Structures are given as C-alpha cells and as structure tokens.
Amino acid sequence: AAQYGSGSQKAIKDIIKHKIEFGIEFDNKKIAESIAKATEPENTGWVETIVKDNVINATIKAENLGSLREAAEDFMACLSVAEKVSKQE
After folding, report:
1. Which family does it belong to (predicted)?
2. 72-to-4, 31, 55, 60 alpha-carbon distances in Å
3. Domains of the chain: which residue ranges?
4. Which whole-number Å values give the CA distances from 83 to 37, 51, 70, in the listed order?
5. Cβ distance 57 to 49 under 8 Å?
6. Parallel, antiparallel, or unpaired: how do β-strands 47-52 and 18-25 relate?
7. What is the pTM of this model?
8. For 29-81, what is each residue's pLDDT tens digit?
9. Rounded to an integer, what distance in angstroms lies between the CA atom of residue 89 and that of residue 86?
C-alpha cells in the first residue's frame, strides 16, 4: 500500500486538477533567493518554488481553472512587490 501514497496524498491528488509551471529570471541568484523567501508565506498549499541560479521555477496548483488563475495572479503580484523592494536595498 505504501507505493500508492498515504490517504492524504491521494485526497490532495484527487483535488488538484490543474497546474502551471514557469520560470522567472532575475538579475542574480541572491535576488532570486530573497524574492522566493519573501513570497513563501503566500505560497503555502498553492505554489512550490525552487531557485536554480538566478531563476525561480514555480509550480502553481489548483482544483479549478479560476483558482489557478487567481493563484497565479497573486503569486505574480507578490513577485513584483518583492522585486521592487529588493531593488531599493
């Protein structure tokens, strides 16, 4: 049974029907890491981010297309604010 995942993993897999993946390039790795960290609290449950070099690779998941769009818009807004703040420092 372990090869099929836990009950909660199955439930989440059944709910999550849509996802979008993209990469956002920044001036350098330090900025990318700072922005990923700054947006982390907003990401819980919807967005997974991985920083590789100066790129934030993001996967956004949602149960329907409307929620996916909202989550993507929210994430991009958070990225925009975090990037502006990072450039002021």
Report:
1. Belongs to the CTAG/PCC1 family.
2. 29, 20, 17, 7
3. 18-88
4. 11, 15, 20
5. yes
6. unpaired
7. 0.72
8. 999 998 898 888 877 778 999 999 999 999 999 888 898 999 899 889 988 88
9. 6
